[in-house]
């Protein structure tokens, strides 16, 4: 996605592994091993260079030769295919298609735009083509701003991000891996991307394959809710917890629970000890603190409610402009 491959600390990376304790899959003929990714896919997409590697997929910059043939001055796309560790797994192509099907149903200015899902017949490589974006991801921004962002800058990022997640949830699409590395600040606005660990809520899009967390352990440790680490299914509340971690980190410069994951933080009841970051307006803190609750039954706030709070102006600043002291 991004033209610059970020150097990201391990705790921000998605952990993706096939569970050793999983029940064996239904016997089937072994798949033909996939070789190296060819430079040309489907006779149309010429791979130019690697942009980034995640837990499940690798993203490349590619030139669309058909667009180029018809004189498009910007024929480049991003091309996502399975990483080498996952490509030979029997269900991996179905999961890649599920990511495409989920994201393709979203039409929002702050959600990455997908073009198509294809399979190269010669190499048997499945891939997604999507818009090529330039700009820093939020983890790169955090590396450059270790003290966090002031309210005006935070709000300019938080509002479009919360709009994207609220829109996705309204259509029954859960992201499953909300973290700074999956949010990019493009020249024309923020983009949320990588729904590879996402799924539809129960009863929506029932035909799509789902990531089975009993067979596949997939999460980003610092942003996964405790219930996910306990083996519970993905939920909107789990997305809200990840949003809470991300927003807290943006305004303070550090993760709310340091390098601990949510289960470790729960053992020490650290969510009860959280203090409002100095740069966060007081009116935002009750909702954000609720989003960071480690008990999902007590995490009674939605992304839409967070959005409403972060859209409000800083009341303290307004009072200071009028000559009153903070209340």
Automatic annotation (TrEMBL):
UniProt lineage: Bacteria, Pseudomonadati, Pseudomonadota, Gammaproteobacteria, Pseudomonadales
Keywords: ATP-binding, Kinase, Nucleotide-binding, Transferase
Binding residue positions for ATP: 80
Organism of derivation: Geopseudomonas sagittaria
Pfam families given in the database record: Pkinase
Gene Ontology MF terms: ATP binding; protein serine/threonine kinase activity
InterPro entries reported in the protein's UniProt record: Kinase-like_dom_sf, Prot_kinase_dom, Protein_kinase_ATP_BS, Ser/Thr_kinase_AS
Protein name listed in UniProt: Serine/threonine-protein kinase Stk1
Protein kinase domain ranges (all copies): 45-311
